[in-house]
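Page 42, continued from yesterday. The earlier attempt failed because a stray header line got pasted into the input along with the sequence. Redoing it now with the clean sequence only.
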Amino acid sequence: MDVNVTAGEQFLEQKNYAAAYEKFLQAYVSKKSMRTNHLLFTAAFAGKQYADAYAIAADYLAEYIADDALFSKYLKAGVMAGKNINVVQLLILLTPYMTSAEKEACQQVVATTLTRYQQEHPEIKKKWQYLGAYSVFEQRDLFAMAHALPTADFIAYSRQWLVDSNVHPILRASIVDDLRQLGVTEEVALINLNQEQVTVVPAQLPAVEQTEIGEKVLASLQTTANEALVGEVRLRLQIMYPFVFKTLTSEQIQMIAMAPLTTTVPSENKLLQRLEAALQEWVV
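This time it went through. Structure tokens are written below.
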């Protein structure tokens, strides 16, 4: 048996969770397995390192989902890590494969844990409606923190953020995608990249990668080893989606999305200028 695992288990019995975590981490880095992952997750969870526990379990998420007890603990870790919205989105994805009893049990775990999270983090009740008043980097941090909100609150604030032209375009695109994953069936208004107020029903949108143009563009990058470049192209598509997809041809969209790889895009293209400005603000 791995000496780090043995030592980690001893520390775990002694409730020295920080020391146990370090030993299990060494064992996991040395040889990844579901067993060492679970030990590492257990130490992180017991030590209230919920964000670490949530991230660790992602390596073997299918195994956690398949085990009711482990999945319940995973849901708790996610909510306590401030990822309530992400947890709810996952449950929505899994709903078709769950029995009514399983669904109810998971919802109860999330609701109970969220109550505990709110009690331990009263700052979560802060006013979020002024997201656009902050700098881009502060907006990014605040938006990430907002994923700890109850679903109804997150959706309500999202409606305000989407019509605030001072909220960064990339965040507005992310909000639309979050609402899509939450299955929001009501029409929502938002300001698009062209600074036009439009409406959309998030639940009716496929993921950008599942659209015809999205599949085409991303498929053309399958031989590209530069992950950062692929990520930028995907981000460009997300910013333009879904409204630009309705007003431009697939060739025009592909040209703008693939701009980092070509010199054929006219520099006077207004949409491209707005997109480049948004990306520049995001990384500076």
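Notes: Strands lie at 188-191, 197-200.
Reminder to self: strip header lines before submitting.
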